[in-house]
Amino acid sequence: MENDSRFRWIALGLLIFMQSTDIADGFLARHGQKLFPIKNLFGAVLDPLADKFYINSTYLTLSSIGLFPWWGSIFFAVKDTTLILGWFLVTRLRGKVEVKPNFFGKAADSIQAILIFCVVGGINQAYVQPAAIFVAACVIIAGSSYAYRAVRGH
Q: What DSSP string runs through 35-63?
């Protein structure tokens, strides 16, 4: 039991580090141009892809050790894959498309991160399934807002 607790603290420390670098990376992607007057399209595209990889690899790892339902990991992975493919499709059809996060997308990402911290932190397993359903609903709302914007051309 002591080993489990020690590994949980190590995992939480790694998550805090990863989330901190994600926040710093996102800040630089959005505001770095003011600090360094270089247009960095690669960073603007790479930042969201790195975020998706971080979130999905964490969910898949949690599912593989039995702490998170597989349906949730698959749902989030399919959602992100659809988002990426949709972005490529819209870019192909309309030319350059700027990725602009909105309130719903930011809220859904934050709620997903909170869920991961709760699961790794040892939330009672009875709450994981309902929490995953809530987060999935938030993600559907965010995805719908992005789809609406894409269709409307905004």
A: HS----HHHHHHHHHHHHHHHHHHHHHHH
112 near 76, Cβ under 8 Å?
A: yes
Distance CA 58, CA 61 (A): 5
Tokens of 52: 């998706």
CA 55 – CA 61 distance, rounded (Å): 10
Q: C-alpha dihedral over 154, 84, 90, 24, to 10 degrees?
A: 40
- Is residue 14 within 8 Å of residue 58, measured between CB atoms? no
Q: What is the pTM of this model?
A: 0.77
Looking at the chain, how many residues does it have? 154
Half-sphere exposure at residue 132, Cβ-oriented, CA atoms within 13 angstroms: 22
pLDDT tens-digit profile, the chain (154 residues) = 455 777 777 877 888 887 787 777 767 766 666 666 555 555 666 777 778 888 898 899 899 889 999 999 999 999 989 888 887 887 788 776 666 778 898 899 889 989 998 998 888 999 999 999 999 999 999 988 887 877 776 5
Do 101 and 132 contact (CB within 8 A), yes or no? no
Output DSSP code: residue 152: H
